[in-house]
């Protein structure tokens, strides 16, 4: 599969987040060409501030392989990871990170800061952003547009 196809798989996960009214962010973990972990934002449905799509996908992948160390794996996510997720990506030893939309408010993989490529850490992650950027951005834009409209109704 291509990078775009894996991002499209992450987009499917983002669509699951919409079903429980979470911000539509999705992620998949790939190892040796196979998806080994999937996740969508679950903060609202689980009442869990840690339940970002990346964290959910990394936990699923670790369970799948029976090890927290995901060396050689790649993470595909629809939105640039925040500082918490970037730290988890580093600590799980992910080799490559690919993401869709850039996040100018919270993004710590190139926008505000670039934790995964910071040479002060003992593990470095290669980062590529902007894959299907518009498609990923539009899902989020539409979600927040609807939220604003629904809030105005009350």
Short account of what is shown:
This protein has a five-stranded mixed sheet. With 154 residues, the protein is an alpha/beta fold.
Give your account of this protein's structure.
The chain is an alpha/beta fold and 154 residues long. 41% of the residues lie in helices and 18% in strands. It contains 5 helices and 5 strands. It has helices spanning 3-19, 43-46, 53-65, 83-91, 133-152; strands at residues 26-31, 34-40, 74-79, 96-101, 126-128. The protein has a 5-stranded mixed beta sheet with strand order 2-1-3-4-5. The chain is globular and about 40 Å long.
Describe the main β-sheet briefly: 5 strands, mixed
Distance between the termini: 45 Å
The largest beta-sheet arranges its strands as 2-1-3-4-5
Low-confidence runs of at least 5 consecutive residues: none
What sort of overall outline do the alpha carbons produce when their principal axes are compared? globular
What secondary-structure arrangement, pairings included, does this model have?
Blueprint: H1 3-19, E1 26-31, E2 34-40, H2 43-46, H3 53-65, E3 74-79, H4 83-91, E4 96-101, E5 126-128, H5 133-152
What features would you highlight for this structure?
alpha/beta; 154 residues; five-stranded mixed beta sheet; 5 helices; 41% helix
């Amino acid at each position: 599969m291509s990078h775009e196809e894996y991002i499209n798989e992450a987009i499917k996960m983002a669509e699951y987040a919409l079903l429980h009214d979470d911000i539509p962010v999705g992620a998949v973990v790939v190892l040796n060409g196979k998806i080994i972990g999937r996740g969508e934002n679950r903060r609202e449905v689980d009442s869990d501030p840690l339940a970002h799509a990346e964290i959910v996908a990394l936990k699923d992948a670790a369970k799948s392989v029976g090890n927290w160390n995901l060396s050689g794996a790649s993470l595909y996510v629809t939105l640039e990871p925040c500082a918490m997720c970037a730290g988890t990506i580093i600590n799980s030893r992910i080799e490559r990170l690919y993401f869709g939309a850039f996040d100018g408010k919270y993004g710590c993989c190139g926008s505000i800061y670039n934790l995964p490529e910071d040479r002060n850490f003992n593990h470095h992650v290669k980062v590529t952003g902007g894959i299907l950027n518009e498609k990923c951005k539009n899902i989020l834009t539409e979600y927040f547009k609807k939220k604003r409209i629904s809030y105005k109704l009350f």
